[in-house]
């Protein structure tokens, strides 16, 4: 009887091993091919994501400076300027715009009228159509000057000078473009390069290939990505005999091409290693499956089912689950390890909850200290100064005002804490946004000036009447202005704007501060979320609740290094009775 059972178990194990081997081998072959294809597509997509922003940056860099030169040309036309005035304008322009080394004004015959140079100009009127032209600006081919730096010449045909038609010609430095290209690295030996429409090399990120730029190396015979109709990606052998994986991004309207190339040995190194590991893993898995199936049969399978059921229960959150495997072999040890793991997971879960509570307490404590210590200290200092007998009435009045201001700050902070737990209902009456904001902006100007920040306001020409709470809206706007002041460096400015668009009244508070990271924007209005080093992060959350209680919305747009803009939108009233009530 025992022999028969053993024989059945052996046959079962063999059938199971053979049934699993065929699909496993097929899966391995398909996986390896899919891995190779997916890896290549992923690397190409990643490199294109590198090349495309570089192309856009170069396009913006060149076209922006061309537009600046075009603006200068507009300033010189139909203005009635004397020659010495034009000369002064050109010199000031070159001093303020470091990309232009020289700007010279010629008449139609090529005679110089004014120039930014102290001596004879280096540039001249173009004698032929420039190879690149966009938006009325001609651009010469890039060349390397005496300092081995890239240079191009911009030319604009002027048709409304005081004299007959003429030309404005500027020598433009492309050194910043070289710096952009030099910063691109794909792995240890992957670089970016820029080529002209005819295949001439304009820039190269490889330090060893810089001389090719000075030699005006033509890449058409070495790179299939050069030229019109070229594919966006390709594998090829470069002039050094190395196989490269390259991707390209065209720079319109310059018709230049940014190419990012990487040796295929580097690009596919991880995929090749994974492929080898996958082959080894599949081979080992097949051998182990057949051997273990022959040795243990059904007895081998039973503990697996037990462990699978236990794992599923643990995955469902039942961390008190335990398994019983009546053996002293590895499966028994695995069962003991599983039980120990489940117990430890329960302990870790409790520890994590405890740490989260402690972290929240520490954060709240730090926020309370940060937000309350300064106003409390100011109240204490001014209270001590009031006790001095040598203070006159004006000084005492100033100290009282400081104490009242700081106490109001503390009260607003405590109101924010209370509104988080239990939002305070607001009373809504018709109100004019323009009048309310004017008072708030005037009251905040002194705070802005104290930080070296200008606060400006531009109000709608017509009354903007909404159904709201004047005090509650004031808290929102003060909070936005305070945040803008804290986020803006001295010398910056804040603009407050009101307008009416269709049936909505809009209020915009925009600053020139540091901006908010894109990954933080989605949660900026959540409780206890802040971009500051200290603070509880309640101001914007409370502001959002107040705006929504007045049937409004609040949105934010931000760009790092450029500033942040908050926009409030409310249903606008327009009847005479509402305007009378608001006034």
In CATH terms, the superfamily of the domain at 429-582 is Histidine kinase-like ATPase, C-terminal domain
What level of helicity do the residues show? 40-55%
Average pLDDT, rounded to a whole number, is 79
CATH class of the domain at 429-582: Alpha Beta
The total count of helices amounts to: 13
Look at the helices and sheets and give the structural class.
alpha+beta
Structure description:
It is a single chain. The chain is α+β, with helices and mostly antiparallel strands and 583 residues long. The protein has a domain at 429-582: Histidine kinase-like ATPase, C-terminal domain (Heat Shock Protein 90). The protein is built from 13 helices and 19 strands. Strands 1, 2, 3, 4, 5, 6 and 7 form a seven-stranded antiparallel β-sheet that branches. Helix 6 crosses helix 7, helix 7 (330-386) packs antiparallel against helix 8 (393-421) and helix 10 (470-487) packs antiparallel against helix 12. The protein is flat and about 100 Å long. The protein starts with a helix and ends with a helix. 26% of the residues are buried. The model is unreliable at 1-9 (pLDDT under 50).
Q: Quick summary of this structure?
A:
With 583 residues, the protein is an alpha+beta fold. 51% of the residues lie in helices and 20% in strands.
Which terms would index this structure?
flat, disordered N terminus, 583 residues, seven-stranded mixed β-sheet, Heat Shock Protein 90, seven-stranded antiparallel β-sheet
């Amino acid at each position: 009887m025992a022999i028969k059972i053993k024989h059945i178990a052996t046959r079962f194990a063999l059938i199971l091993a053979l049934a699993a081997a065929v699909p496993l081998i097929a899966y391995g072959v398909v996986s390896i091919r899919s891995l190779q294809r997916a890896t290549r597509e992923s690397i190409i997509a990643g490199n294109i994501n590198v090349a495309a922003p570089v192309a856009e940056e170069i396009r913006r860099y060149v076209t922006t400076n061309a537009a600046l030169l075009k603006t200068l040309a507009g300033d010189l036309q139909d203005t009635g300027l004397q020659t010495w005035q034009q000369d002064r304008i050109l010199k000031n322009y070159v001093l303020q715009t470091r990309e232009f080394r020289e700007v010279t004004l010629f008449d139609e015959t090529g005679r110089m009228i004014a120039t930014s140079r102290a001596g004879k100009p280096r540039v001249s009127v173009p004698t032929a159509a420039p190879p690149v032209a966009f938006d009325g600006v001609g651009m010469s081919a890039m060349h390397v000057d005496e300092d081995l730096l890239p240079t191009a010449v911009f030319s604009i045909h002027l048709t409304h000078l005081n004299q007959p038609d003429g030309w404005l010609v500027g020598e433009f430095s492309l050194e910043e473009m070289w710096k952009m290209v030099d910063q691109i690295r794909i792995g240890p030996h992957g670089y970016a390069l820029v080529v002209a429409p005819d295949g001439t090399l304009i820039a190269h990120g490889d330090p060893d290939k810089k001389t090719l730029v000075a030699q005006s190396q033509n890449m058409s015979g070495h790179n299939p990505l050069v030229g019109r109709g070229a594919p966006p990606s390709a594998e090829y052998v470069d002039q050094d005999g190395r196989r490269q994986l390259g991707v390209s991004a065209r720079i319109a309207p310059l018709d230049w091409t940014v190419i990012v190339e990487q040796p295929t040995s580097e690009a596919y190194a991880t995929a090749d290693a994974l492929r080898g590991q996958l082959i080894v893993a599949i081979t080992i898995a097949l051998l182990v499956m057949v051997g273990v199936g022959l040795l243990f049969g059904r007895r081998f399978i039973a503990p697996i089912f037990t462990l699978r059921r236990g794992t599923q229960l643990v995955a469902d959150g039942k961390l008190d689950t335990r398994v019983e495997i009546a053996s002293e072999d590895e499966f028994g040890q695995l069962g003991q390890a599983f039980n120990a793991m489940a117990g430890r997971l329960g302990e870790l879960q409790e520890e994590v909850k405890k740490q989260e509570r402690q972290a929240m307490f520490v954060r709240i404590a730090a926020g309370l200290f940060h937000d309350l210590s300064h106003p409390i200290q100011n109240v204490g200092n001014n209270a001590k100064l009031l006790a001095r007998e040598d203070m006159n009435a004006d000084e005492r009045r100033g100290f009282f005002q400081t104490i009242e201001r700081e106490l109001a700050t503390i009260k607003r902070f405590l109101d924010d804490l209370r509104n988080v737990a239990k939002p305070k209902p607001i009373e809504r009456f018709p109100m004019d946004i323009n009048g309310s904001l004017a008072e708030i902006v005037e009251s905040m100007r002194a705070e802005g000036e104290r930080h070296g920040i200008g606060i400006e306001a531009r109000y709608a020409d017509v009354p903007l009447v909404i159904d709201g709470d004047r005090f509650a809206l004031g808290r929102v706007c003060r909070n936005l202005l305070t945040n803008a002041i804290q986020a803006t460096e001295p010398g910056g400015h804040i603009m407050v704007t009101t307008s009416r668009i269709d049936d909505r009244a809009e209020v915009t508070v925009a600053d020139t501060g540091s901006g908010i990271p894109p990954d933080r924007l989605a949660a900026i209005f959540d409780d206890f979320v802040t971009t500051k080093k200290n603070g509880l992060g309640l101001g914007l959350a409370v502001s959002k609740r107040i705006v929504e209680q007045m049937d409004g919305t609040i949105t934010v747009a931000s760009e790092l290094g450029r500033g942040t803009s908050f926009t409030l939108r409310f249903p606008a009233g327009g009847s005479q009775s509402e305007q009378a009530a608001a006034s």
